[in-house]
Amino acid sequence: MKEKGLCAATINKRIGLIEVAINFLNREHDAELTNYASSDYVAHIKNADKRRSRRVSDEELTLILRHFKGPTARHAAALICFCFHQGTRRSEAFNMTWGDVDFDNHAIRFPKHKTMNYDQELGGQVRVMTGKARDLLLRLREEAGRVTASQKVFNAYARVDGYSLAFRRATKEAGLEDIRLHDLRHEATTRIAALCGHNTSLIKRVTGHRDDASLARYTHTSTNSIAMLMSRNAIQHE
Predict the structure, then answer these.
(1) Nearest-CA neighbor of 214 among 114, 86, 79?
(2) By CB atoms within 10 Å of each CB, which of 124, 139, 164, 171 scores lowest?
(3) Alpha-carbon distance 59 to 70, whole Å?
(4) pLDDT (tens digit, 9 = 90+) per residue, 176-227?
(5) Is the C-alpha dihedral spanning 180, 88, 96, 137 positive or negative?
(6) E strands in the chain
(7) φ, ψ for residue 212 (rounded to 5)?
(8) What are the two backbone dihedrals, phi and then psi, of residue 102, each rounded to the nearest 5 degrees?
């Protein structure tokens, strides 16, 4: 799993899931399997769940995008920019079709997302589209010409892993360290939080987070930003 580029937290979760599955088979179906996923055989990676606080600046993103060379890579860069402005997960952007985009109401429907079990009966999760994300999608649609509702917005690669590989290659060529594609969601959430005045209800309408605890893991607001916001609110109430 490490060779495939999975992060430590994901590896630990998958090992834990395997351990639970084998325990269930042994307990409920008398399988008598040796649980090689248990702590007796494999050690979980330490400090895997440490919160990341890596932020991606506009300058770093510009530098990364310069290393997306060739027609396919340049089209793939559009997904990178979309994640940076909208704060979506890579799989959400990858599965998005033109039929999911509602330009008139500044909204995007996500039938497939991490917490989709909560929204299946509603036909998917509807999020507010940011202005920069909307501008990007309008430009892509104009460049694409005629599109169908079922056509994917981002189709540079057949598999979602292609975008992650291209992103890692570009960051390496740019000489930047410790940047992951998922960090773009962290950065976008932090910026969206500032634009929404740190109103968690509004932020979640854009980012799709289900609860405040998960949202907090993606918000890395500086003390200066919070102090400035408090000052503005104090002035407005005087």
Answers:
(1) 114
(2) 139
(3) 21
(4) 988 989 899 989 998 998 888 888 888 889 998 887 777 776 776 555 554 5
(5) negative
(6) 101-102, 107-110, 125-128
(7) -70, -35
(8) -115, 95
Among 40, 1, 45, 37, residue whose Cα is nearest residue 20: 37
Q: Exposed e or buried b for every residue in 144-171, given b needs 16+ CB within 10 A?
A: eeeeeeeeebbebbeebebbbebbeebb
Q: Note the pLDDT tens digit of each residue in 74-113.
A: 889 999 999 999 999 999 999 999 999 999 999 999 886 5
Question: Phi/psi at 101 (nearest 5 deg)?
Answer: -95, 125
Distance CA 74, CA 68 (A): 5
CB 108 within 8 A of CB 97: no
Q: What is the pLDDT of residue 135?
A: 96
Kindly give, in sequence order, each residue whose CB lies less than 8 Å from that of residue 220, ignoring residues fewer than 6 positions away: 53, 55, 186, 190
Q: Which is nearest to 140 in space by CA: 82, 69, 70, 58?
A: 82
Kindly tell me the sign of the dihedral angle through the C-alpha atoms of 23, 27, 28, 34: positive
Question: Looking at residue 198, what is its pLDDT?
Answer: 81
12 CB-near residues (< 8 Å, 6+ apart): 44, 45, 48, 49
